[in-house]
Amino acid sequence: MRSLFLERIVHIFLLICALAAIIVTIGIVVSLIGEAFRFFARVSIFDFLFGLTWAPHTLSTGEAKGFGIIPLFIGTALITLIAMIVAVPCGTLVAIYLSEYASSSTRQILKPLLETLAGIPTLVYGFFAATTLAPFLKNFAEFFHISLSSESALNAGLVMGIMILPYMSSLAEDALHHLPFNLREGSMGLGATSSETILRVLLPAAFPNLMAAFLLSLSRAIGETMIVVMAAGLSANLTFNPLSAVTTVTVQIVNLLTGDQEFDNAKTLAAFGLGFVLFILTLFLNILALYGIKRYKRIYG
Amino acid sequence: MAPKINIKQLNLFYGDKQALFNVSLTLPAFQTTALIGPSGCGKSSFLRCLNRMNDIIPNIHLEGQVLLEGQDIYAPSVDVVALRTRVGMVFQKPNPFPRSIYENVAYGPRIHSLFKTKAQLDNIVENSLIRAGLWGEVKDRLSQPATRLSGGQQQRLCIARAIAVNPEVILMDEPCSALDPIATAKVEELIDELREKFTIVIVTHNLQQAARVSQQTAFFHSGYLVEAGETGALFTMPEDERTQGYITGRYG
Ligand SMILES: Nc1ncnc2c1ncn2[C@@H]1O[C@H](COP(=O)(O)OP(=O)(O)OP(=O)(O)O)[C@@H](O)[C@H]1O
Ligand SMILES: [Mg+2]
Q: Would you tell me which CATH number, out of the four given (1.10.3720.10, 3.40.30.10, 3.40.50.150, 1.20.1250.20), belongs to the domain A72-265?
């Protein structure tokens, strides 16, 4: 009897914990949407989504121009793209090495090392970008007579790529390592070499989980702020040139909300507008990914 | 019958642990040899020595000789990739690749470039599936994922995949243990037909199966080859009392 009663208590307690998490999430979304709509009451959503100029700080309160987010999204996309170009191929190759080629003793040293790297605060990466990589890139560019500002999308993207690399490779390594051993045997038994097995059997078989690793890394890149503040700057230039300074959505959110702010003018409310669009975008990416992975798994088991 | 594979004084070690002791056995060409014995006696270990599948396992050490048509497959000059096309393998659990039925069978021919035109490859795939007795069931859905087939069909697909590279020997490690009786009967029938073209070695825990499909049977016990001989004779008049005990079900 007593143990049954205890079970019920535990059950209810755990239910409350679960509900609390859900309620907080709903609360966040609702407040985000609420503030975003207050913003869209002042600035047309069309001007916001398709405007080509981002200059909220030059405006006096209540003015509706200068809230075009296209430069921010292009800045985000540019930096994220550079980061993924670094992190995805390198991360996958590191994962392949660790999972398929490294001896178990090498693996036992390298895997925890990678996981440690993945845990370093991004601020530290930001320092690295600003104080080490930026001057290096600048000198390097000067050697070829290209002028490069010390803040650039390239700089931020490269460091962000380095930051994501251990994360990506750790996830990809898990994806490969957990494939059934009998797939390897099947392929080797037909006279395939290790590299043929990896390319033709293991990578396709791990594809859904590699895709998940890719998307988790992508979300991290999109959400990353510190590195961009320190390495890419605040200027909202509308450009695809990786050598120029750009800024991103998250950086501008921080920028809009820094200092004592009243939440009643378009300038601060714009942060919620940005947050809202970012939220929709990442939600869409995640749903797309889940759908794709599910579909692939349904087909190939 | 000419010997296809000749195993001489084979000792196998996993690290310090010895798994096979002085095993010598001859596998006649175009016959099926069944390997039987209690769990953990070394049947799989022995089988995997015959196409060097053990190479994948770290810390393994081997002494003795395995001669394939007189040539030692562990000689330093031997190309393992080429060896495995001559000695193919079918595993206990069906392990189709997560790709289409067609691509599963085409896998071996592709990596070994066994064809020049697409038509030739189509031909290899069709013939292998016909020989594996699966063609009728899958000919209309070759582009579907292999993982959607039933377990028995998957195992026959794995057999088709193995014969697509035209091996001389096929090793099978408990190929029917994950299958129901009907699927098992089909695979057994298939093994009997394949004997015309291939030399077959099959590990099985099912003694009736060993009796049905094999011409020679070898009985292993704790890493030793206790007794080997013509299947009928071994089952009716075993020489060793351990063999007698095992086949009459007194232990194992
Ligand atoms: N990779 C390995 N590392 C270390 N020991 C192994 C390994 N594989 C097998 N062994 C050991 O070698 C011995 C023989 O194993 P093996 O798998 O060959 O037996 P088996 O006859 O195939 O058994 P079963 O009928 O259960 O499949 C066992 O004692 C087993 O523990
Ligand atoms: Mg076994």
A: 1.10.3720.10
